[in-house]
Each structure stands twice: as structure tokens, then as C-alpha cells.
Amino acid sequence: MASRLPPKSPVLLPLSYSAKFDYPLTAEEIWFWQINTEFSRAEIKKLINKWQMKNGEYCYLPSLSRTVALRQRRRQYSRGKWTIARRIARSIARIPSVSAVFITGSLAMDNCKENDDIDLMIVTLPGTLWITRFFLFLYLFFKSLRRPPYLSEHSSPRVSDKICDNLYLDLDHLYIDPHPKPPTYPLYVAHEILQTVPVVDKHSVHHRFLLANPWVGDYLPVAYRESLKKYKYIKLEKLNAKWQTPIGKIVYIPVNLLFYFLQYLYMKPHITQEKIGPGYAFFHPNTDHGTHV
Length: 293
Fold this sequence. Notes:
Keywords: Membrane, Transmembrane, Transmembrane helix. This protein has about 290 residues and is α+β, with helices and mostly antiparallel strands. The protein has 2 domains: about 55 residues; about 210 residues.
């Protein structure tokens, strides 16, 4: 494989990013995950052939041929975790206030290590996040499904296949701010947003999530465009009317604030980088960009 490539190459940029996670890409994936460029499939394939970057199905940077076998092995590990994640997501969705359950992180890209935990993003109806989280915590805890919060690792026999419910949003807080972090952080967040996989989606949440974060298209224009394209002729589903009535809001919003206040008091001594509010909760935010793809 060629060793000298233009530093701004539409092929090199996504390969360099994915190399951080030992994740070689197919030609189709390079086209999809272009960073700041919008070359056609044909142009991408032409560049790959020109620079002799493809070996079999995958493309990778020089000296990283080992990552092909690693990706294939992690895909096998991920299959079992997908079965677990889907089963638990369907159970979680029985809670009436849950609007959607997303697979995030490594599993969303089939790139799990053998002993990885399972990252979930939970989206709730407006004004119900902390009520939902309380009952979801009880369910996961008593079923022994939740990764113990006192364990710092996310890949070990102690946390293998456990649920890490580290991101909660309600439907009024789907926008994710990429700016308060280092310069490399927006690309990481954009990738994380676009790689999420909805397992349960009651109210067109994935579509709403993409529309709420158009800034990701500045970093990954093809991935954003193609992700939205499948919703081009689909109307947004209406929310359950009972949650949107004045009486519903009068009841649920104050109760949610009470649950938020009580859980905040419990968590306060342990809060470090977590970002929480009545309509959102980012637990254990990733700052080293090194555990997902």
C-alpha cells in the first residue's frame, strides 16, 4: 500500500480518524465518512486505486494491516452484544415515557472488544426525563443489567455486556453542543451522533435528532446528507397527546423537577465532568476520544 498521501486527501482523513480506533474502512465507508468533503463514490474509488490503498475488502493506513483481523474479530464480539442490547431496549421501551432507545459508541459500529459494556442513549418525552431515569435505574439494578457506577472501566470481565445508560435527552433537548471542548471534539461528537442506531423509535426521534443537530453536516457532510435522505418522504410522528395537554404538563413537569432535584442531591458528591439539567443528562462524557468510533 502507498505510504505517501496528500495530507488533505478525502481518503486519508477518514482513514486517519478511524485508525485511532483500529478500524479499517471499506471504500463505501470512506465515501460515507468523508470529513469536510463531498466527493462522489467514483472519485473516492479512483483515489483509492491511484494510491493503492485497498487490500481485499478494506483500506487502511500503511503498517496497520493488523486492524483488518481486529475489526473482523470485534464484529463477532459485537453480534452477541447486539442480541442483548435489542432485548433490553425493547424492555426499556415499555416505560410509557420512553420515546426512543439508541445504541451508541463502539457497538453502533460493530467495534466492541470482548468485555466491553453496552452504551445506550435514552430519549424521553418532554418533562419526564428524571422520572424515567428513576424507574429505569430500578429496572436495570434489580435485573443486574447495569454497569456499576463505581467501576471506572468500560471494558473488563466485571462490566462485560452490562448496560451503560450514560446519555439521557428529552425531546425538547435533542441539540448537542460541540463547542465547550478542545478543537478536535466537534468531529468526535458529530461522528458519535451520526453513528447512533435507533433500536426503538416511537416518535420519529432519530429524524428529530438529526434535524436538531445540522452542524454535524459541516464536519461529515455526506454522512449527514445520507442519514437524512431516508426520512425525505416520511412525516414526523406526533407525540402522544396526553403528555402534551396542559393538565399533563402541570402534573409531569413539577414531578420531574422533584425527581431531578432528589437525584441531583444524591449524585452531587460524585459529579466531576457530568453535565446534567432537567431535560438532559450526560454521564461520564468521553474526553479522550479513544473508546468509540
